[in-house]
Amino acid sequence: MTVLNITYENAEKADVAQIEGAHTDHFLADESKHEEGVVGTHDAVFGTQQEGGPNYRSVGWIQTMIIMTKTQISLGVLGIPSTFNTLGLVPGIIALTSITILTGWSNYMIGKFKLRHPEMYGLDSAGFMMFGKPGREAMLIILQLYYLITVGSAFIGISTCLNALSEHGACTAVFIAVAAIVGFLTSSVRTMSKIGMVAWIGLICIMVSLITLAISLSQQRPVLAPQTGPWESDWKAIGSPSFTEVATAISSIIFSLSSPPYFCSILAEMREPKDYTKAMICSQSIVYSLYLIIGVIVYYYAGSLVTSPALGTAGPLMKKICYGIALPGLLVSTMIICHVPAKIVFVRILRNSKHLSANTVIHWATWLSCTLGTCIIGYIIASTVPSFGTIIGLIGALFGTFITLQIFGAMWLFDNRPGSTVSRKRWIAGACWAIFIIVVGFFFQIAGTYGSIVEIKALYHVTKQGAWSCKDNSGLIR
């Protein structure tokens, strides 16, 4: 504890130095003298590279693009068809496109802010720069709550998959525990570059699973449709949802695209941060295209009979096939989702200490404690929420909006104060956009949280599924 307290105090002093402008000389690596991974290389976040220690700054831009894409194409896409069912096809496409634009701007801001402030690792660092210590602590709490609930949703996704494959071969609470154990074992790798080695496998598996689902629905009726006699999909161009349903659907889409906080940590481990924008644009384009194509195809053929998650829409056999193909992808997603929040706490504790980049007992004890604690809390959260659909709506509304929209509007205003180098007209236009982002974010945060809570309450009454339930959570939920 003495060592941890000392390093924490060092981090406090370093943070003050950063705000006063001393971070340029103190943190930036002298790239003309050192190569990444060579002992003595200094980084603004991870400190000096120690002999035999992990080389955090080792992720290329293609690996970055794959990790970013895998972070988004996982749990979220499985709920897109059901949001189209709620909103209608046309409003659903408009909502998906609009939110993609908003979150794309936030993703772009990450790269701009990081280049100006190389000491930023997570959004809590940005909170400190903008609002001091209270801002940092508030952002850290919000971030960790978001991350931990997302970890819980990842465990729910794996338990749903295992239930589907085994035809509920064990208690759901057991499957969630299995997911938590796997999450701990896989997320304990120390660098993003090692995750990048398997991320492409997970990405391919998820994409093949979704394509298989789309093809199967074009060839056979949804499982909930009558299998004999005349039947046509009842898809609607424009739906007639209630306000609560609209808010929940929008929140689900926001959750599907709420990866900017993860992108901050991924960017920090890039070899060349200047390549971030290129990787981000490629990733965002792939994600949007897949979300749109899969969402439209599945909803068009299934109509109101689409399920959430969508992999169960095509019938018992195809449900097993799709989940079987998707399982490696869900495991890789869980690996990333558990790794990032653990790494944020780990860096916060050991920053400006040699233990951050050295193979010491304190290094390993701290790192494994962070990953274990993350998975335990995620397990508890997963065990107390009744279904996949409700948790992603709640996450998207309560936390996803703030750390995907509002905080980035504030970051733009912080970095572009009146009298900056841009012209007055450009500054006014930028300021209006940033304020618009903040206002829209708060609206969806409040409305979506209300809608999600109403739906969770209603679902408890319908399913009677309580905490640590053994009930099959892969049942067809519409």
UniProtKB/TrEMBL annotation:
Intracellular or extracellular location(s): Membrane
Record membrane topology: Multi-pass membrane protein
Domain of life from the UniProt record: Eukaryota
InterPro entries: AA_transpt_TM
Domain Amino acid transporter transmembrane: 59-453
Listed transmembrane segments: 89-110, 138-158, 164-185, 197-217, 237-258, 279-301, 321-340, 361-382, 388-414, 426-447
Alphabetized UniProt keyword annotations: Membrane, Transmembrane, Transmembrane helix
Coiled coil: none
GO cellular component, one term: membrane
GO molecular function: L-amino acid transmembrane transporter activity
Family note: Belongs to the amino acid/polyamine transporter 2 family.
Protein name: Amino acid transporter transmembrane domain-containing protein
